[in-house]
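Changelog entry

Holo records now carry the ligand SMILES as an explicit input line rather than a separate metadata file. Below, a converted record for S-adenosylmethionine, shown in the new format.
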Amino acid sequence: MISNRIKEIAKLIDNTSSFTDIGCDHGYLALEARKNGNENLIICSDNKIGPLNNAESNLKNYDNILFVLSEGAKEIDVQTDIAVLAGMGYSTAKNIITESLDFFRKCKKIIIQVNQDVSSLRKWLMENGFKIIDEKIVFEYKYYQILVVENGEMKLTEEQILFGPYLLKEKSKTFRNYYHSQIKKIKRIIKKIDVNHPDRFKFEEQLFRIKKMLED
Ligand SMILES: C[S@@+](CC[C@H](N)C(=O)[O-])C[C@H]1O[C@@H](n2cnc3c(N)ncnc32)[C@H](O)[C@@H]1O
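Structure line, unchanged by the conversion:
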């Protein structure tokens, strides 16, 4: 079963674009793109042979797919329109981009879904010549934020870094549900910690910012 998260990422890949899925694991993104009618070149890449073999097996009925064993994009010598980095940590995604900057600069867009530290990712993108052009939030047991990025400048406010410029503009039902769940989580933490705990102020401030953002 292909997850909502993968389906949402696949929707961001138009049928006229080729793409590279870095850290492809099972190859489900390529599978979903083919099901959606994308017949362009797909590069499925992973730094481990096991996942890459799984991807190859899952995609054996489809043509025009290259399977590349590669640390990040280092071994990829064919350029595609789009690069996807999904289901990994912020540091991993950031390092992969930094180590093969030329490859990523030549992509028309990059789709990035990190499992945590999305705010740090936004800040890093802003400071490194990337511009967010769209954002999605999906729920699949957990909440996932997906960023669509291209080369360019952007200036984000602190609030936009924290909540996402496009997610903030839309404030979708899923987005609101996510922050209502965050409020409950932070309240539970505050209840457990001592009034003099050094982190207490940090949590209270987070709570205040989320509540204010939802009210605005
Ligand atoms: C949790 S899976 C995510 C798979 C898929 N992208 C998704 O979103 O469902 C992470 C995959 O990234 C691969 N990976 C981790 N670090 C990597 C790196 N530096 N270069 C290439 N692949 C990497 C792992 O081997 C694993 O298959």
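Spot-checked after migration. The pocket of S-adenosylmethionine is lined by residues 6, 22-25, 46-48, 51, 71-72, 86-88, 92, 96 (CB under 6 Å). Residues 173-192 form the longest helix (20 residues).
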